[in-house]
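So, could you explain the following?
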Amino acid sequence: AITTAADGTCTGKITNYPHRNLFLNGALNISQRGDSYSSANAYTADQWYMFVTGSTTTRETSSPPDGFTYYLRCPSTSNSIIFSQQIELDAQGKVGKYKNKTVTVSWYARTESSNTMYVDAAFKNASGGGDYTAVRSGTSDIKTLTSSWARYSSTFTISATPHANNKCFSVMIRTPSSGSGSTGTLEATGFQCEFGDIATDFEHVSNGEEYIRCSRHLVQYNNLGSSDDQPALFTGVAGDNNDLFGQIFLPNAMRAHPTLSYSSVNHFAYTRVFGGGSGVLGGTLYISYDTSFPHQVMAMRANASPNPGWSQGDVYLIRMIGGNNGYMRFSAEI
């Protein structure tokens, strides 16, 4: 499939050039939130937002398709399973590189029922919607799944223009909303979205590179439950008798200034760096203020309760307490 021109140049369809997959984490190798996701309408493995009605979605390794390690298992007993990724636009409201492009979306799937799947696409403000600008309705190109792993693909052309508030190109690989093919348990992995009219070889990315790309949107520090696993998070200087001020250096500049969430303040402890003294934090953790850094250095404040009587100027280490599945999460997801 190589075409030559009179001036000596040529064009061709190449199936393995790098960085052609517009999706992040298409093989589901990165999952900072763990392997079990009980909430509908929420993020699961990094970058994958799930609209699921039914039981808990899990990330499995027992029987993936050839060439893959992980897949998502969705034991839905009701209607509609949607695997959705919000691909960041280069600038809000700008169509940019997507203008009039032909796009092919491919994925691997199998079903324990009689599921069918198709691909919808839209420009949106966020994973949940907002100023929804339809790009493609895939109900005319429905794929019938079987009990064996197979690769499916769907091709369409982007002719819509984003709304001024749209931040992402959202691709939704889904079962129908109701009726035939909508219900039952299915499994999927190997998601790829690329420019062109064919599904090329799946692009495998190293875990290190994939994590850095995902960390633009999510950074999570986990205590995996071992009593010996006590991650040190940041050092802080006491500003008064119950407030520490410090910084966390994230692995990557995030997409936007992140929001902070964590499991419980009782999952964090403080230890005086010089002179001894420690205890359970028991108060509140904050991103203290926006910094002038490019969303990579977070100014942190730790407020302890009950008042530990810190001395101004003393230095303390904030760490997770072992054995409790604690986490600290910085999220800039769309």
Q: What stands out?
A: The first helix runs from residue 207 to 214. The first strand starts at residue 2 and ends at 4. The chain has a mean pLDDT of 91.
